[in-house]
Amino acid sequence: MFRQSSxxxxxxxxxxxxxISNFTVGLKGLGAYSFIIFACICLFTFIYIWVVIPETKNxxxxxxxxxxxxxxxxxxxxxxxxxxxxxxxxxKSEIKSTFL
Length: 100
Fold this sequence. Notes:
Layout: H1 7-26, H2 34-52, H3 61-72, H4 92-99
């Protein structure tokens, strides 16, 4: 879902949340209450996804990219004419040109 330029920061945030959750569960001083902190992190994540992240079911990657670009007020560099629909017949010259 992430563009190549934003993947490293996204993976850093995901990894940080993962390790913070593991750390809180592993604290010896909190005992059984450490899972309450973990549950709060999970609840916050669920609410964030439910409220902020749009539904992407049955949408193409281009549609999703446009949705996020519109939401973040950025411009997409891909043109619609470059994207071809799948399922149609492809000529032999098009197949050869894709593998060159």
